[in-house]
Amino acid sequence: RVEIGDGNQIREFVTISRGTAQGRGLTRVGSRSLLMAYVHVGHDCQVGDDVIVANGTQLAGHVVVEDGAVIGGLTGVHQFTRIGRKAMVGACSKLTADVPPFVLADGNPARARGVNIVGLRRGGMSAADRMEVQRAYRVLYRSGLNRTQALEKLLAGGAPGAALDHLIRFVQTSERGILRSAKEGQE
Q1: How many CB atoms lie within 10 A of CB 133?
Q2: Angle at which helices 162-172 and 127-141 cross, to 10°
């Protein structure tokens, strides 16, 4: 089946494939999203609410795009990849690993470039939560720790707020792995 929520803008030549018996059986597009011209949403994809997908972007089967994500045009997203809440992916990117929530990603292959501060501010995230997300980004991507060590450090920091808790759970449950940082790509 295919389920499409309310208030979406689905532009010219968008294709949305239905779910498959071998997959989830359901392709879902949430509400208030914008799918620009020539976007493809593959079988068994889950696209959240308030998502923007720019022209010519291709989501392969089983992709999950969380609420409020923005994906730049002509981006290719590998099957089973997840794009986290309020993440922003630059145009012409190639995604083969998960993009954590709140992260800016860009490139071919895509790399983590920083925190989507503008998107978080526009989305109403408090200054305290934005600072917590920035701290978590530094631990994940700039501390030199591996993913397990970085998660342990984040969890040892006390009770996380809702945004940090979501980020930690996303990274913990990543099956494809999360994007590497731009710095790692240069080393």
Answers
A1: 25
A2: 30
In this structure, are residues 41 and 15 in contact, taking their beta carbons and an 8 Å threshold? yes
Q: How far is the C-alpha of 179 from the C-alpha of 126, rounded, in Å? A: 25
pLDDT tens profile 5-41: 999 999 999 999 999 999 889 999 999 999 999 999 9
Mean pLDDT of the chain, nearest integer: 95
pTM of the predicted structure, to 2 decimals: 0.95
Strands (E), 27-74: 27-29, 34-35, 40-41, 46-47, 52-53, 58-59, 64-65, 70-71
Distance between CA atoms of residues 160 and 154, nearest Å = 8
| Catalytic center residues | 43
Please tell me the predicted confidence (pLDDT) of residue 186: 46
Q: Tell which residue, 120, 160, 164, 117, has the closest CA to residue 140.
A: 164
Dihedral over alpha carbons 170, 120, 140, 168 (to 10 degrees)? -30
